[in-house]
Design goal:
Arc Repressor Mutant, subunit A; 151 residues; 23% strand; homodimer; DNA-binding; alpha+beta
DNA sequence: CAGACTATTGAAGATGATTATCAATAAGCA
DNA sequence: TGCTTATTGATAATCATCTTCAATAGTCTG
């Protein structure tokens, strides 16, 4: 959960024997310029990159996003059925969690530093290297409670 | 997050115009008799049901497990890449969370009632009907920190 | 308790997000 | 500058999950 520049991204990649490519830098930029509360699926990213004149292939997008999640740069979110969303993994005090309607996927973000504390403490206690910690609240939103079918 | 018997399950299903079937009852039993800390994928369930002489079809398993998650009877867990796991959604003080290694998927469970409190309070404040609340800590376990490749 | 209504099941096929493959390209390093 | 090999893009493959539909069986009513 650090703040990345092209240089620090390059340093961290090179440290591991990997390379900084224009594609990786572009994708990082997209996430860094995303308004708070936004998250993108691989498909969303692909579309957006095309629109801004960077036709990065879907393969590369999937690989990059997975790589960055494994490095702790992005968070992988399960906000909807069937596909993942990604957002920047920001440190305190931007760190937040999600309240998700399991019927319509409407999502509300909220913050809680006590949760982040529990997360870091638990990881540390077990000797795990923390990448991300997120509280997911699965629930049914007021609108969907009114509609009976199905479930 | 209640404790279900065949009768209370039937009552809740019938309330919504649905039915209690032997398949649904059998699947609930499997989860109720699962040792603490175990969770099953759809495929796991299928195998286990076959072994105990209940050849329930995969379709029905997928449908049932999804239904029960929507009802708040089961929790849907993202413990490994590529497929979901399910476990009983138990109330306090059995309610727990997961610390997951993103490389090898080794999982450690831990409890925290402060998190459950944050979850219920947040859902209530927004008028959402709470089904499940889980803190997922994504991290790298001590063993995988030692192995360098890949990621 | 029988009959009607319709939710549910099982089998098979369809879907679609994500991965793997592989030749061509281009970072990073000596 | 050249070498090594990580990365890319296009394509095809994978595989968990969902759909479809005819047959079956819960639930409710009289």
């Amino acid at each position: 959960m650090a703040i990345y520049t092209a240089d620090s991204l390059k340093a961290e990649l090179n440290d591991r024997g990997w390379r900084l490519t224009p594609q990786r830098e572009t994708i990082l930029h997209i996430f860094q310029n995303l308004p708070e509360g936004n998250h993108l699926s691989a498909e969303d990213l692909h579309t957006r990159l095309h629109e801004q004149g960077d036709p990065i292939s879907l393969s590369t997008i999937y690989r990059t996003v997975k790589l960055m999640a494994r490095m702790g740069i992005l968070r992988e979110l399960e906000l909807a059925e069937g596909h993942k969303h990604y957002e920047l993994n920001q440190p305190y005090p931007y760190h937040h969690h999600h309240l998700i309607c399991v019927k319509c996927s409407k999502t509300i973000e909220f913050k809680s530093d006590s949760i982040l504390k529990v997360g870091s403490k638990t990881a540390q206690k077990e000797g795990y290297h923390l990448l991300d910690c997120q509280l997911s609240i699965h629930a049914i939103c007021p609108q969907c409670q009114r509609s009976l079918f199905p479930v």
